[in-house]
């Protein structure tokens, strides 16, 4: 049986308070202003040069807005600690169709791909990594499981300098030799979990991760703007140079920002996907509808529930630091280093996608306050409807 597809409608049609959503749109637009009071002082950086927000309830998109610039700066000047503005006419306006480097939102698709293999019986959620990948002897010796990878409880450190390795053989050897640094079962967020899970999925399925994501998620859902890079029309990210970055690559646009994903060829379990706000809204809607969208089904309802139930498999659950007042009732989501985030709330059937290029022209200390504020506006729109 087909489930309703997303359609654009009014807040009232979505069962949301239009006043709260108007505040949401205004506040998101203000995130792209430089805070200089009209003086043109570009040293006062906005939260992000550009932002896209898509929010709704049920099958209705009630908010779909873009503000600012997909590319505003030619480079970053460390002497002035400011971006070097592109010449007049050269900046690229942000649109609702602009793709973004999703960074760690990629982990969500890796998690769904894992649940698909579990649903098919080709992988057990408590299977030991060593049983699937016997050559990963260190993981085998420590009894790391698929569930631990999905819940970030394997004890593996946050990351490894794979970008500094000479070739793929050296990168693989480094991963195979990596032992947990934390107590097994205790939470330690790590890119290595999803990298290891990528190798597991590719071994049990016989297909590379990009094929698993395309054939299992994006193609059936009609997410035609979603895929691993390169993605030439994407929002720009960073003027990536040492010492603030881990590689010297210059201003990035359409190439994966994460240095390790880049070193791995752009396809990685923890980063590498590009997508748009509309496509991510479809992804959220499919999960809120129990794994189905239109005539397609990517997961059964029981497996979606397993994915989103605390502590979450790949997804974070009830995290006020970026979910605001949506947290507390089982909302699930994730953030990405480049400025991306999404939240879906099964209890109220709502979703919020907030995409921004916060690392353009240079990375800085992450600030999830605006993410939490936007989620709070959506929560209040539900309550005020």
SSE topology sketch:
Layout: E1 7-8, H1 11-14, H2 18-30, E2 50-57, E3 60-71, E4 73-77, E5 82-85, E6 92-93, E7 100-101, H3 106-120, H4 129-132, H5 137-141, H6 146-151, H7 168-177, H8 191-205, H9 209-221, E8 227-228, E9 236-240, E10 250-253, H10 259-263, E11 273-275, H11 277-288, E12 292-293, E13 296-297, H12 301-308, E14 316-317, H13 320-323, E15 332-335, E16 340-345, E17 350-356, H14 369-384
Parallel strand pairs: 1-3
Antiparallel strand pairs: 2-3, 2-17, 3-6, 4-5, 7-11, 8-11, 9-10, 12-13, 14-15, 15-16, 16-17
Helix pairs in contact: 2-14, 3-8, 3-9
Shape: globular
Kindly report how far apart the N and C termini lie.
Answer: 30 Å
**Rg (C-alpha, Å):** 20 Å
CATH topology of one domain: Beta-lactamase
Provide the CATH architecture of one domain: 3-Layer(aba) Sandwich
CATH class bucket of one domain:
Alpha Beta
Please characterize this protein's 3D structure.
The chain has 385 residues and is α+β, with helices and mostly antiparallel strands. The chain has a domain at 7-97 and 274-384: Beta-lactamase (3-Layer(aba) Sandwich). 34% of the residues lie in helices and 19% in strands. It has 14 helices and 17 strands. It has helices at 11-14, 18-30, 106-120, 129-132, 137-141, 146-151, 168-177, 191-205, 209-221, 259-263, 277-288, 301-308, 320-323, 369-384, and strands spanning 7-8, 50-57, 60-71, 73-77, 82-85, 92-93, 100-101, 227-228, 236-240, 250-253, 273-275, 292-293, 296-297, 316-317, 332-335, 340-345, 350-356. Strands 1, 2, 3, 6, 14, 15, 16 and 17 form an 8-stranded mixed β-sheet that branches. Strands 7-11-8 form a 3-stranded antiparallel β-sheet. A hairpin with a 2-residue loop joins strand 2 (50-57) and strand 3. The longest helix has 16 residues, at 369-384. It is globular. The protein starts with 6 loop residues before the first strand and ends with a helix. 53% of the residues are buried.
């Amino acid at each position: 049986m087909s489930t309703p597809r997303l359609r654009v409608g009014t807040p009232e049609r979505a069962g949301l308070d239009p006043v709260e959503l108007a505040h949401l749109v205004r506040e998101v637009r203000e995130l792209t202003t430089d805070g200089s009071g009209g003086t043109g002082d570009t040293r006062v950086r906005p939260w992000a040069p550009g932002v896209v927000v898509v929010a709704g309830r049920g099958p209705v998109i009630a908010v779909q807005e873009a503000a600012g610039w997909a590319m505003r700066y030619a480079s970053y000047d460390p002497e002035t600690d400011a971006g070097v503005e592109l010449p007049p006419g050269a900046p690229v306006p942000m649109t609702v169709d602009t793709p973004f480097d999703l960074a760690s939102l990629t982990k969500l698709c890796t998690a769904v791909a894992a649940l698909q293999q579990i649903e098919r019986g080709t992988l057990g959620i408590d299977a030991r990594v060593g049983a699937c990948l016997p050559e990963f002897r260190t993981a085998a010796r420590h009894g790391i499981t698929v569930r631990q990878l999905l819940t970030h409880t394997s004890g593996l450190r946050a990351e490894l300098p794979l970008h500094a390795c000479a070739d793929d053989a050296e990168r693989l050897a480094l991963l195979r030799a990596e032992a947990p640094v934390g107590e097994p079962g205790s939470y330690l967020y790590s890119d290595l979990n999803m990298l290891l899970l990528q190798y597991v999925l590719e071994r049990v399925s016989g297909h590379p991760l990009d094929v698993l994501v395309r054939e299992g998620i994006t193609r059936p859902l009609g997410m035609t703007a979603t895929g691993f890079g390169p993605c030439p029309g994407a929002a720009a990210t960073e003027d990536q140079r040492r010492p603030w970055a881990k590689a010297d690559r210059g201003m990035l646009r359409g190439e994966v920002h994460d240095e390790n994903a880049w070193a791995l060829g752009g396809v990685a379990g923890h980063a590498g996907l590009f997508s748009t706000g509309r496509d991510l809204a479809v992804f959220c809607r499919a999960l809120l509808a129990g794994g189905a969208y239109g005539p397609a089904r990517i997961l059964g309802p029981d497996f979606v529930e397993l994915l989103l139930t605390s502590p979450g498999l790949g997804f974070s659950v009830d995290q006020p630091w970026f979910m605001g007042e949506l947290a507390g009732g089982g909302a699930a989501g994730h953030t990405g280093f480049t400025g991306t985030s999404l939240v879906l709330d099964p209890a109220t059937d709502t979703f919020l996608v907030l995409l921004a290029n916060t690392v353009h022209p240079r990375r800085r200390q992450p600030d999830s306050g605006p993410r939490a504020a936007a989620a709070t506006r959506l929560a209040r729109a539900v309550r005020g409807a």
